[in-house]
Amino acid sequence: MPCAMNHRLLPLLLLIITGITLFSCSPEPTKAVEIRGIYGNPKPLWEKGYNLKDLSVNAIFVHSGSINAEMMERARVEGLKVFAEFATLNGKNYVKEHPEAWAVNEKGEKVEAASWFMGVCPTEPGFRQYRFDQLRKLLTEYDLDGVWMDYVHWHAQFEEPEPILPETCFCDHCLSAFSKETGINIPDGATSEKAQWILSNKDDSWRKWRSKVISDWVHEIKSILKELRPQALLGLYHCPWTDREFGSARYRILGLDYDLLRKTVDVFSPMVYHERMGRLPEWVAENIEWFCDRLDIKNGSFPKVWPIVQASDKPGIVTPEEFETVLRGGLTTKASGVMMFTTWAVAENEGKTEVMKKVYSELMSRP
Ligand SMILES: [Zn+2]
Predict the structure, then answer these.
(1) CA-wise closest residue to 57 among 77, 85, 37
(2) pTM: predicted TM-score of the whole model, two decimal places
């Protein structure tokens, strides 16, 4: 009897042993997280007496206007990579001084600011020159590890629970460029009539052309970057909506076509600001998972995904616990870096500083 029992148990035992052996020999490969970042001037943390290395931070993302030689020097001493945020199509002051670059809506009127955002017309030649010159100056002055384009979309506001999604831009530059580049003849008439004709008859071509205008900007910025700093990366802060949200407004209104952008952008940084956009903290992981699948992101190759999550208590409160959820959520699936909005929000709250330190040091101690 005992002998018969052993015969029956033996295959089962072997199966269990084999399973354990296979499992221990083929663990899930550990994903390398290369960027443990902060977004915003590092001064608030430095003023609290921190060396960023002790917080396991290895990269800072700073508005280009805040970068100076002293900051660069200290960042290098602390072993940090420095990436400059480059405000691309936002320009309230620019349009005040250059009304020819003011975006025009479907009524033929100059657009109003979309809360704090004022999108400049992306086809106006003077503005293009102005921005590209600014970029050249920035890259010549500082040895940056990369440039992160911000506000790369047509006039709109997506960072609020109730987005502002106007139809633009029907200025003379845009209408003639659309006509010339697509071969579509727009019937004569007032601007509002031309706009109506396009939206009613040539909607597909219009959306496609607008996305091309945006991707051309990205392309132009990449060529300047490669010319002046060949090793530097090109990143993009962008609206994180899926293809269908808000009636496909990410493509239709903002002009962001991921299939075009992925050819040029080195690193995507979806702006997953859960609280500002009225979402739950868990949404961050869901969104990043969707995004990595949508772009077919692969470990160790370009394009990469380094999301920016929300730490800031504006307009509502983000608790340290929520901050931990979104920071970890930002590193879901194939994301290989993360940062938070903002450095100041982390520095002013000890709980959030501790969360960042804990999560980032865990990442450092991975084999
Ligand atoms: Zn225009």
Answers:
(1) 37
(2) 0.91
